[in-house]
Specification:
The protein is mainly α. It has 2 domains: 65 residues, no CATH class; 35 residues. Helices cover 53% and strands 11% of the residues. The protein has 3 helices and 2 strands. Strands 1-2 form a two-stranded antiparallel ribbon. Strand 1 and strand 2 form a beta hairpin. It is elongated and about 110 Å long. The termini are far apart. It comes from Paraflavitalea soli. This is Peptidase. Keywords: Membrane, Transmembrane, Transmembrane helix.
């Protein structure tokens, strides 16, 4: 197993490299960069942090945040909950009203399908106080 040497790693990061962009037709050097691994790492890390920061700022400070689930306006969430409750209760009322109208229609047409309750009731006897 190779030993880890901090000095050699640091030297490798600081080694200088040359990046040359050349014209393919004339072999003329267009741009020359002197780079090291450390400078490339720093530049890429800075670009990543800046892009992340810009993305977060774009979402937080613009109306785009409304498209994130659970991040909506508190008042809108409360209103949505109240509307859902009202809708559920209206559905219940409409169902009950429909049943009532069906029953009235059946009574007026003479379609009585009423089952008589023939079970005996067990009525408890009232308690008496004996003195």
């Amino acid at each position: 197993m190779a030993k880890f040497d901090a000095n050699s790693t640091l030297k490798r990061l600081q080694n200088r490299y040359r990046l040359v962009v050349m014209n393919d037709d004339t072999y003329e050097e267009v741009v020359t960069f002197k780079l090291s691994r450390l400078s490339v790492y720093i530049v890429l890390s800075t670009i990543f942090v800046l892009l992340t920061g810009l993305t977060v700022a774009l979402i937080v400070f613009t109306p785009l945040r409304m498209y994130i689930p659970g991040y909506g306006d508190v008042n809108a969430t409360r209103e949505l909950r109240e509307l859902k409750i009202r809708t559920d209760s209206l559905e219940t009322v409409m169902h009950q009203r429909g049943q009532y109208l069906d029953n009235v229609k059946n009574v007026l047409q003479g379609n009585l399908s009423v089952k008589l309750d023939t079970t005996a009731l067990d009525i408890p006897k009232p308690e008496t106080i004996d003195e």
